[in-house]
Design goal:
The structure is a single chain. The protein has helices spanning 38-49, 84-101, 123-143, 184-192, 200-205, 213-235, 240-259, 267-277, 280-289, 293-299, 305-320, 331-343, 347-360, 365-375, 381-425, 449-464; strands at residues 20-23, 32-35, 56-63, 68-76, 108-114, 148-155, 158-161, 175-176. By secondary structure, the chain is of the alpha+beta class. It has two domains: 3-200, no CATH class; 206-378, Serine Threonine Protein Phosphatase 5, Tetratricopeptide repeat (Alpha Horseshoe), CATH 1.25.40. It starts with 19 loop residues before the first strand and ends in a 25-residue tail after the last helix. Residues 428-451 have a biased composition (Low complexity). Residues 11-25 have a biased composition (Polar residues).
């Protein structure tokens, strides 16, 4: 760090201004990057998150005498100062306990408060307004015996240190941030192939509902109609499977449609074009259908390869169509977007989508589980294996049903041939019964295998004769018997 707060720095630093070497996780071969002072620390923030945070509080754990980067947390800055104290305590506890679960308690924490000035407000005014929040964060971390080495406010292209009282070192009007792409961190990120995705605000805009009045009115009418037509069918055990199959088939058609139109270079233009490819009615039917957990879990199987790219575009487009009173419905497509992003190694995008899903519905369990797993840096392959297994089981069940149906059909055909032959040649001699012959060695009351197959097929008909699923296979075992296997609650 710099000399201005060497007394609060990690072990091994000194007031003379020795540099703080930081080993940044996520880079190839864990390169050692030396950050010299708060300016380079502020510049490093977007590279540790994968995007430029806006209106955010970020806590970054440091480990060891050289201040190795560890876990990090980001949260929107609470609007009410009354929330600052409890939020500060929760953030500090979450970061420390999360680091301990991963095997290493932090030796220190760096705090960032990032907020652009409002209209007519200066960056310095933002810094002063957030100073009490910074102090509560320092106090909360100190209460857990983890010191805050540095607390920075980033606003209006400048930064301020809450830990440095020296106006000569840290001027009251702040210090201009390093130009983008010119720092040691930027060079290391470019070498490792890591890119900053843009601002948090821009990334969230791709997932938030559209606000154009005509779009909102038309989409909300379509959602009203779809809800009236589908909700009671989803809740009815006699018709819910048909709705699931229809929803997956519609999603498959929309995936294929998006695949025919590759994304554009400009993200905003690409999203607008994707929106135009999906009608209000199609979006509404799919949004309502995805409120069913089993349907959502089947849709989550589109998680790998080119299919995942198309699915991510679809889930984003659906999230943008959850307008008006249907904002809570966005939890399902947002969670699917977060899952696909995490499955394809886009952790920043996953955290943002899952965070918005929980904003839409704080009790949405699938989003909570994925968000926690993503934050704890678990391997998504475990869930991928589970979803692959569900798909394979569904395919196998479809093959078995198709085989039984063909067998039953052959039995019925053989009986038809025998009936026609008997009609031509008459009843066999020596038979005093009115019932047709059942063949040698069988009584007239015995049932042949064909008859049994017919009865099983008739019983099975309402539950297992429609095709569906991502790969066109029949719906899987476990649906007819009402089991919840594979569903997140």
């Amino acid at each position: 760090m710099n000399a201005h707060h060497g007394h609060t720095g990690p072990r091994g630093t000194s007031p003379s201004g020795n540099a703080l070497p930081v080993s940044t996780t996520g880079f190839a071969d864990e390169p050692r990057i030396t950050l010299r002072g708060p300016a380079e620390l502020a510049d490093a923030l977007p590279y540790t998150l994968g995007f430029h945070p806006t209106d955010s509080v970020v806590l970054l754990a440091l480990h060891g005498e050289h201040g190795r980067f560890g876990g990090r947390l980001r949260l929107g800055i609470p609007r009410s100062p009354d929330e600052w104290a409890p939020v500060a305590e929760q953030l500090a506890e979450c970061l420390v306990e999360g680091s301990e679960r991963r095997g290493s308690r932090p030796d220190g924490i760096v705090v960032f408060l990032c907020q652009d000035p409002a209209e007519g407000e200066s960056g310095r005014r933002v810094m002063e307004r957030l100073r009490p929040f910074a102090q509560k964060l320092r106090t909360a971390c100190g209460a857990l015996d983890v010191p805050v080495y540095e607390a920075l406010c980033l606003s209006g292209g400048r930064f301020w240190s809450y830990c440095c009282p020296d106006s000569d070192c840290c001027p009251p009007d702040g210090t201009v941030l390093t130009p983008a792409g010119t720092s040691v961190m930027a060079a290391a990120a470019a070498y490792a192939g890591i890119h900053v995705r843009g601002s948090l605000r821009d990334m969230e805009a791709r997932l938030r509902p559209r606000t154009a009045r005509t779009t909102v009115a038309g989409q909300e009418r379509a959602l009203d109609t779809a809800s009236a037509e589908l909700v009671h069918r989803i809740l009815d055990t006699r018709t819910c499977k048909d709705v699931r199959d229809d929803t997956i088939r519609l999603a498959r058609r929309l995936l294929d449609r998006l695949a025919e139109h590759p994304p554009l270079a400009d993200e905003g233009a690409s999203d607008t074009r994707d929106d135009a490819l999906i009608t209000h009615e199609e979006a509404a039917e799919l949004i309502v259908g995805l409120q069913d957990r089993r349907t959502r879990d089947r849709a989550a199987e589109w998680m790998e390869g080119p299919e995942a790219d198309h699915a991510l575009r679809l889930w984003r487009a659906l999230a943008r169509r959850c307008v008006g009173a249907y904002g809570e419905h966005a939890a399902a497509p947002l969670t699917l977007a977060g899952w696909v992003a995490w499955s394809t190694a886009d952790e920043p995008g996953a955290r943002i989508a899952l965070g918005l899903a929980l904003e839409a519905d704080p009790e949405y369990v699938f989003a909570r589980l994925l968000h926690q797993a993503c934050n704890e840096q678990l391997d998504p392959e475990t869930l991928r294996e589970c979803l692959r297994g569900e798909r394979e089981a569904r395919v196998e069940a479809g093959v078995r049903r198709a085989f039984r149906t063909r067998t039953a059909g052959r039995g019925a055909g053989a009986r038809g041939v025998r009936r026609r032959l008997r009609a031509r040649v008459g009843r066999p001699r020596g038979t005093g019964q009115d019932a047709p012959s059942t063949g040698p060695g069988r009584s007239a009351g015995a049932s042949g295998p064909g008859a049994r197959s017919d009865r099983r097929a008739d019983l099975r008909e309402p539950y297992g004769t429609r095709d569906g699923g991502p790969d066109g296979a029949a719906s899987g075992a476990g649906e007819a018997d009402g089991s919840d296997r594979g569903n997140a609650r």
